[in-house]
Amino acid sequence: MPLKKGIVGLIPAAIVILFLSLAIGVTKWQDKVDDLTVYIEHERYADLWEFCNRTILTYSKSTGSGLGSETVRETSPTSCADIADVFTARMTKFNNIVKNVMFAALACIVIACLGILVKYFILKEWIHEKLQIRLGFISAAMAFFSGALAIVAFGVYNVEVKYEGFTPHAGFYLTLTTGILSWISSVLFLSSSLCIGASMYPDMT
Predict the structure, then answer these.
(1) Which domain holds residue 133?
(2) How many CB atoms sit inside 10 A of residue 70's CB?
(3) Dist. CA 171–CA 6, nearest whole Å
(4) Residue 21 falls within a domain, yes or no?
């Protein structure tokens, strides 16, 4: 089979699946730490499901030998509430849009990977070359849509959901990364089909 770029494209696609899954379930999309005193910090953070608060106390404690001290950080139990109970109705609506778009992006990249697996490991190249080309194009399109959806989720969250003064966190940046990696997969899936087409119709190259 001509250059199996489609199989290489599964590598960034697999990372996309992992990162999207982490972004959907990760505990932080945005956070803010306020210094209440020199020794007390109050942290607030949100994911796609909950908004949480916790207090961090920093103090010095004598060592067992009594010859010095060590810095100790104690974290209070985390208190979390459902997003809908904290966000405004508008923010909750757009947060739900982000969640749905993320699930759609995950579904698209999974379909793209399944198409490539069928193309290379089930279809026979000397019998199903035209079908392989179509599957490659479909997989490339699905990977592209996955990336586009991830970028949309990134933009919507940044504009409509993130609190002013809060810092973007892991879930936010994982989503941006998946968009870029999905487009890389799309290019590799597409080029693999173009290679097959070039081998079938050499006079056209």
Answers:
(1) 5-28+88-204
(2) 10
(3) 28
(4) yes
